[in-house]
């Protein structure tokens, strides 16, 4: 049993449809889903803007199993890996996992937790703050509130992230 914060992003193909597939894929475990945010590409590769969401899920899965579920959804979206931080139909990242109230720490290349680059990513933090205003993230400098991590980001990057759409959870009617 664990609680995970999941980030999903897309900038190729039917991006909104790909994000909807994530909401549907985690439907039984979803605690909260952010709005869909339009976000400028992070990481220095010139490419189209992304759509991003952050979800909180809770269920009888281990951290590895959350990662596996995300990988299945990426495959279903015909995800290929070409350029690091480059364009993609769907990317599903596990940001942090809590088991019995304790944050899972993992240094394995297959699954590094908490996600080592989440603290620098407005496209993860801003949607996360929307659904969990008191959220914190463990960083190499210690535990930080998501709010203060956002405040520490470049203002232009922060301001460019904006909510554009809402996905209704499964059973919530047409979106
Ligand atoms: N916390 C994590 N969430 C998702 N994938 C992870 C995590 N930690 C390690 N990985 C591994 O990272 C590998 C590469 O992932 P991917 O190609 O999606 O990276 P990326 O999205 O380009 O970059 P980034 O890792 O900076 O988000 C995956 O095969 C996965 O096993
Ligand atoms: N805005 C934004 N930028 C990114 C994203 C993403 O989901 N959103 N994913 C990436 C893959 O590593 C690289 N850059």
Automatic annotation (TrEMBL):
- Alphabetical list of NCBIfam families matching this protein: folK
Does the keyword Glycoprotein belong to this entry? no
Q: A biological process (GO) annotation for this entry? A: tetrahydrofolate biosynthetic process
Known pathway: Cofactor biosynthesis; tetrahydrofolate biosynthesis; 2-amino-4-hydroxy-6-hydroxymethyl-7,8-dihydropteridine diphosphate from 7,8-dihydroneopterin triphosphate: step 4/4
Give any GO molecular function from the UniProt entry: ATP binding
Transmembrane intervals: none
Q: What is its EC number?
A: 2.7.6.3
Which chemical reaction does it catalyze?
Answer: 6-hydroxymethyl-7,8-dihydropterin + ATP = (7,8-dihydropterin-6-yl)methyl diphosphate + AMP + H(+)
Q: Which CDD domains match?
A: HPPK
- Determine if ATP-binding is one of this entry's keywords: yes
What this protein is called in its record is 2-amino-4-hydroxy-6-hydroxymethyldihydropteridine diphosphokinase
Taxonomy, top ranks, is: Bacteria, Bacillati, Actinomycetota, Actinomycetes, Mycobacteriales
Per the record, a Pfam family?
A: HPPK
| Enzyme class per UniProt | transferase
7,8-dihydro-6-hydroxymethylpterin-pyrophosphokinase domain location:
84-95
The highest taxon in the source lineage is Bacteria
Give the keywords, sorted: ATP-binding, Folate biosynthesis, Kinase, Nucleotide-binding, Transferase
